[in-house]
Amino acid sequence: MEISAVIEQLNEELVELRRDFHRHPELGLKEFRTAEKIVEYLTSCGIEVETKRYNKTGVVGLIRGQQEGPTLMLRADMDALPINELADVPYKSMEKGKMHACGHDGHVAMLLVAAKILTGYRNRIKGNIKLVFQPNEEAVGALGMIEEGVMESPKVDACLGLHLWTPIPTGQMAISAGPVMGGMDHFHIKLIGKGGHTANPQEAVDPIVAAANLITTLQTLQTREINALKPTVIMFGSVNSGTISNVIPENVEMAGTLRYLYDDSEALDENPRGRFERITKDMCRLFRVKHELTWNSHQPPLINDSGMSDFVREVATDILGDQNKIVSYVTMAGEDFAEFASRAPGMLCFIGAGNKDKDASYPHHHPCFNIDEDALKVGVELHVRSALKYCSV
Asked: Is residue 321 exposed (0-12), middle (13-18) or buried (19+ Cβ within 10 Å)?
């Protein structure tokens, strides 16, 4: 039977899988139920599943071909976000304060059904298809899996990831070579001054005025120190200090992200992180405050391999039937698939999942986020056809 017809037969199962994961979201490194369901499904399909859990909850399955050949890794992320869902849908999150607001529930469902279909084509597979279900994408969970050997035994020769994306309409895909998602560093800064009365600021060391100047001065990094053709964004998402209007507080705590869309492997004093540290140190000295700067996580920019991009584009054109439905898309949002793609030729494809008529047009990480479930079939077919073409006899 034609692959698209098989997918159509499994569509109800595909949608229900996605909805089940959506009802039961789990945060990073706590995806225990999700992992259990994945293992049950893969095992029921006759797929070899490692007993080891990578980075606490990660699941790895392997479809072995009948002949020696390359290993293609297909990856899906599993974690949800600490957001209270506001969307009025019948499959609404049952976990207060947790929801799948980034499409990971759909990613898991697509890869599971793709794996089921691929088992029926073992006689056409030369090499291996490694199925990687990754925890904690929102906080660089890929790196833990890599450090534990997920890209070895068998060694991964190439990797493919899919991301459901509501800014792109259903029926389109975004496939681009080169940088497509930003490198990202999460930072936390504590400024330590000397508290006092607001009537006598000369007797205190005010961390608030230091914080205000630091926030604005750090913006010059991206406008005065880095080429405008090298996108760089510094954002503060949290600033906390003080409890009352007439007291100069002792401390200010701030947190945010540093993002960039280029290789940051230059010398420390020239890369964005090194420049950030220098400005912070000098501004704190200027305003007489001490400081503690902590980098909480880091991931490189996602750079799609040109060969894999061309390869996936050919497959996608066959699926969509019109190369004009394949668009270019670049975002400063981070994605730790970059860790896999920096170690083997990799490609992350955006699957259009936006549809205003179905109330599926909210941005990612929004409490009303939802996807057009028709996009799930497209993702399954791209997984299946890419794997068969890459590992063909």
From this structure: exposed
pTM of the shown model: 0.94
Structure tokens at 128: 């291996």
Please give the Cα distance from 70 to 73 (Å, whole number). 10
Asked whether 154 and 342 are in contact (CB, 8 A), the reply is no
Residues whose CB falls within 8 Å of the CB of residue 316, separated by 6 or more in sequence, listed in order: 173, 175, 326, 349, 382
Give dist(CA 93, CA 310) in Å, integer: 38
Condensed to tens digits (0 to 9), the pLDDT of residues 237-274 reads 999 999 999 999 999 999 999 999 988 776 556 789 99
Q: How far apart are CA 136 and CA 146, in angstroms?
A: 13
Please state, in angstroms and rounded to a whole number, the distance separating the CA atoms of residues 54 and 333. 25
> Are residues 202 and 75 both part of a single domain?
no
Instruction: Return the CATH number at 98.
Output: 3.40.630.10
**What angle separates helix 11-23 from helix 375-390, to the nearest 10 degrees?**
110
Question: Is the CB of residue 182 less than 8 Å from the CB of residue 333?
Answer: yes
Look at the chain and report how many structural domains it folds into: 2
Q: Are 214 and 288 in contact (CB under 8 A)?
A: no
| Same structural domain, 11 and 114 | yes
Domain final position from 247, 282, 299: 299
Q: Domain containing 253: what range? A: 183-299
Same domain, 237 and 325: no
Tokens 């139920």, residue located: 33
For residue range 283-329, what is the model confidence (pLDDT) as tens digits?
A: 999 999 999 999 998 889 999 999 999 999 999 999 999 999 999 99
Do 280 and 293 contact (CB within 8 A), yes or no?
Answer: yes
Burial of 171: CB neighbours in 10 Å, binned 0-12, 13-18, 19+: middle
